[in-house]
Amino acid sequence: MQFELVNVEKVYQASEETKVYGARNVNLKIAESDFMALVGPSGSGKTTILNLIAGLILPTLGTLRHGTSDITALSLEERTKHRLDYMGFIFQDYQLLPILTAAENVEFPLQLKGFSQGEIKDRVTWALAQVGLETMGHRFPKQLSGGQQQRVSIARAIAGKPQLILADEPTANLDSKTAQEIIELFKKLNQDYKLTFVFSTHDQRLIDQVKTVHYVKDGQISETRTHHA
């Protein structure tokens, strides 16, 4: 099912006289198994666009669609459930819960989704194996390297087998070798399981590997380039 932003604007009112545009006239289609990046410097609007796709913020004008559903028409509670049901998230700073083990961090959103205990166990085992951490589920985040913590974050995002994974600067805190390994992992998940990824990034190594690059400037998609990863 396709995700789509249609003529989307997001205006932040800095004062009565000043309007700041986080997004302007954004039209974006995200098809199944897409592997795309939103690219631009800090303040360009790429994170705002990512947050709009997620329904974390609503547009001032325009429509967010998922298949035939109009996300802009949903209540806050409905949008939260929609994110949980259809999306996975990967963050620059991992956002793991320090009091939970790696396996428990992966398990947490599955519990919120209401899976049975048996299915949760199977999905956690599968997800940790995909990221190469099948023997480290018992470790706490502080016992893991940055790269391993990001792998747990990826396992958490994919365990529910969502229709869309949104990753905000997922390689920014990693050293060069680890970042390259994580990029290869993203590619493998996209190719093997047709998982759909949208990245917000300025990491050229990741930009070089995606299928579509949307360059964002002043809240607008200024240019789109497509190539085969």
Write a brief structural summary.
The protein has 7 helices and 10 strands. It has helices spanning 46-54, 76-86, 102-113, 117-130, 146-158, 176-193, 204-207, and strands spanning 3-13, 19-30, 35-39, 61-66, 69-70, 87-90, 164-168, 197-201, 212-217, 220-226.
Question: Would you give an account of this structure?
Answer:
The protein has 229 residues and is an alpha/beta fold. It has one domain: Rossmann fold. Helix content is 35%, strand content 28%. The strands form two sheets. Strands 6-7-8-3-9-10 form a six-stranded mixed β-sheet. The protein has a four-stranded antiparallel β-sheet with strand order 2-1-4-5. Strand 4 and strand 5 (69-70) form a beta hairpin. Helix 3 packs across helix 4 (117-130). The two termini are 22 Å apart. The model has no long low-confidence stretch (mean pLDDT 94).
Average pLDDT: 94
- What CATH calls the topology is Rossmann fold
Number of strands: 10
The biggest beta sheet is recorded as:
6 strands, mixed
Unreliable stretches covering 5 or more consecutive residues = none
Instruction: Kindly report the oligomeric state of this protein.
Output: single chain
Shape: globular
* Tally of DSSP helical segments: 7
CATH class descriptor: Alpha Beta
Strand order of the largest sheet: 6-7-8-3-9-10
**Distance between the first and last residues' Cα:** 22 Å
Which structural category do the helix and sheet elements fall into? Answer: alpha/beta
Give me the CATH superfamily. P-loop containing nucleotide triphosphate hydrolases
